[in-house]
Sequence to fold (118 residues):
Amino acid sequence: MNIWETITGSDLTRDWNGFGDRAKVLPPDYQAAWAEITQHLLLYGDFTGRNLTPIADGVLGLLEESAAEGLTAHQVLGDDIAGFAAAVAGGDGAKTFHDRWREQLNRNVAKKLKHLGG
Fold:
């Protein structure tokens, strides 16, 4: 990866387009599960989303292997796809970007209040 790719994010676009191409050849139930997983994973991304690329690659690999073994998406993922996404993104209690933004806002407000108070 060169500096230009880092700045523009073109490497991320290329990676995620590749994931999409890989997902298109999966059975329909896996394609639907992949779409739902990616929606839930996005909540756990950092500012650029680079932290999600290896996670998404691993999840897609799991789906590809499971489909090749003839399992259904439900057999592999169960009913709680949001829980699955949270688990692979960092386990139970993993912070979403909403959580991180809320914490930063609270810290900034506390600093301002402390500054105003004395």
The chain has a mean pLDDT of 84. The chain is about 75% helix and 0% strand. The radius of gyration is 18 Å.
